[in-house]
Structure formats: structure tokens, C-alpha cells
Amino acid sequence: MNSQEKFQEVDSVRILLYSLIFLLSVFGNLLIIVVLIANKRMRTVTNSFLLSLAVSDLMMAIFCMPFTLIPNLLEDFIFGAPMCKIVAYFMGISVSISTFSLVAIAIERYSAICNPLKSRAWQTRSHAYRVIAATWILSFIIMTPYPIFSTLVTFVKPDKSAGHMCRLEWPASQVEQSWYILLLFVLFFIPGVVMIIAYGLISRELYRGIQFELDQKKEARGLRNGLNGTMLSRSEEGDGCYIQVMKRPNAMEMSALTPSGSAQVDRPRSNTSEAKLMAKKRVIRMLIVIVAMFFICWMPLYSVNTWKAFDLRSAHRALSGAPISFIHLLSYTSACINPIIYCFMNKRFRKALLATFAGCLWPCCHLREPDDDINAASLSKFSYTTVSTMGPC
């Protein structure tokens, strides 16, 4: 296989992957937008942030993917100077809003889980709308250098024809370096640290809840065993006194004092407890996945941009062509991963999706899924149960 065939094969793979990620991103985020707008019951605080995230990810798919792949394949920006400025601006805005939305979701969940009583006073939809508006306005302001400094530059191709590329023409190299360091901290490092801390504290709280429930189960088993022994000893004494046990809730006392019905009462409670434990473990794993995917998707791109700002020649030699195209694709993958992690893994969202499209999926709307999991989009239902008893993070 000669070099030309290798390049064609790489281009085919790039086109296939970009098309797949583009379709998944557009279709997935459009579904989220339709479902959250059409269902009034889904208009919660967290879902308000998810709607903003879906809109920004849809913008990323539309303004980033085609305008990155096509010029890269043609080695020519064919869309003109005005589109160069518009596309660069909306690329930056979509990435910024998406990142800020992820941070807002992490902080909102941390407050709901770790400080439920305090957060209940201010976590309202109106507050969420103000935060969302602030993230959009801030993103539009931060990204103003893109339309100002984006320029369509003409160059000569190897075949002597004229080509064009959309690039940022900074007034000085120090300005460019400062800009990319700013983006590295504002859109990657600081958001990453906030998400790690928030989801780490949530995971710790859920882990405490798991340990608390396991201890409760051990105490309940020990209580039943001790109760049986006490009943035997007291029946032998025949004094007719009430059995003295540790003070427990009424439901526990009834199950302990009625051996004939204890199996029927304890089995549903045990099943519910096991379901909660498994659900909390799934949530902890999901939080780890969320943080890991953020770093996997965005670390290469921000590292490359910083490298290019300080040593453009070596970065261009090492990454031009397919490598930089795949690095961009990896960052754009977040636009199709976010809908899966934040919404489609949520049983309530799937039910709302079926209800929204009940006209064409009417047989499916009768399907009922057990609502026993604690999903990533509605973690706040822990806040007034087991987790809240463990105190603030």
C-alpha cells in the first residue's frame, strides 16, 4: 500500500467517525431539548442546566464538526471570511457554555446532596435560570477575541494553487500565549478541579450512606438473633414480662416481636435496601465516569493549543493533518457522550421520552420500568433520607 492509499484510508476513517459523532450528537441533544421542553414535570433545577448543556452541545456539533473536518480534508477553508469569524466565535461559545454547564450541574448536585437543608432555600428554577443566563453572557464576553482576531489567510498549496485557512492573528506572541493559558485554566483546569471536588464529596457522602445502611442491616440481624435468644430464655423463666430490647422505630419493633410475620415484612425491606445500595454504587461509578470523560475528551486539545502557543513550528510538524483532526474529534465526542451520561441513563428521562413520542411508540408507553435506581440527574432524592443524616460534607 503506497502513501496515497494510506492517506485515503485515513481520510475515510476520519469522515466515518466525524459523521457518526455528528449524527449522534445532533440526534441525542435534539431529543433532550424536545423532551425537556415538552414535559412540564421534567422542568426541574437540574434539568434546566441539562437543557442548557444540550443546546451548547448541539451548537458544538453544528459549528465545530463540519467546519473542522471539511477544511482539514480539503486543506482549504472554502466558507469565506465572514464565516471564518462567525464559526470561530460560536465554536468558542459552545465549548465555554458546555463546560460552565457541567460545573453548574456538579455544584448543584453537591449542594443538594451534601447540604440539603441550606440548598433547599435557594435551589429554585428562577435561580437556575439566572445562573444559566450568566454562563451564556459570560461565554459571549470571554470569546470576543475570536471574531476580532480571526482572519482568512491565503497561502500557496504544493500544487501552486491558492488556498485559505481560518486562523487567529494575534498582535503579539505574548498575547497568544496569555490567551491559551487563560483558556487552559478557565475552561479546563479550574472546572476539572471543581468537578473532582464536588463529585468526590458526593461520592464520599454516598459511601457513608452505604456504610450506614450496611451497619443498619448488621444491627437488625444482631437484634433478631439476640431477640430469639432472649425469648427462649424468658420463656423458660416464664415470668411473663415484656422483652427489653434497644429502642427502635415501631416498624422494627413490630417485625421483631412477631416472628410469624417477620419473613414477610423483612423481605421487601431487604429488597429495597439492596436496591438502594446497588443504586448508590452505580451513581458513584457514574460520577467517576463523568470526571474521567471530561479529562479524556478535553486534556489533549488544551495541551495541544498551549503547545502551539509556545512552539508553533514543532507542534505543526508533529500534529498537522490527521493527528490534530482526531484530537479535535476526541473533544467533540463530549457532545454525544453528555446526553448518554446525563439523560439516557436516567430511567425517568427514558419514560418521559416514551411519553413524548407516544404517538408513534404507543405500545412502548405501557412498559413500566422499576424506579429503584438513584440516577445521576436526580440525586437530590437522597437529600432528606439516609445521606442527610450523615451531616455536611
From TrEMBL:
Listed GO CC annotations: plasma membrane
SUPFAM superfamilies attached to this UniProt entry: Family A G protein-coupled receptor-like
Transmembrane portions of the chain: 15-37, 49-74, 86-107, 128-149, 179-202, 283-302, 322-344
Record family assignment: Belongs to the G-protein coupled receptor 1 family.
PROSITE patterns for the chain: G_PROTEIN_RECEP_F1_1, G_PROTEIN_RECEP_F1_2
Subcellular location: Cell membrane
Organism of this sequence: Megalops atlanticus
Swiss-Prot/TrEMBL keywords: Cell membrane, Disulfide bond, G-protein coupled receptor, Glycoprotein, Lipoprotein, Membrane, Palmitate, Receptor, Transducer, Transmembrane, Transmembrane helix
Stretches assigned to the G-protein coupled receptors family 1 profile domain: 28-342
Membrane topology annotation: Multi-pass membrane protein
Function summary: Receptor for gastrin and cholecystokinin. The CCK-B receptors occur throughout the central nervous system where they modulate anxiety, analgesia, arousal, and neuroleptic activity. This receptor mediates its action by association with G proteins that activate a phosphatidylinositol-calcium second messenger system.
Name of this protein: Gastrin/cholecystokinin type B receptor
Single GO MF descriptor: neuropeptide receptor activity
Entry annotated with the keyword NADP: no
Keyword Glycoprotein among UniProt keywords: yes
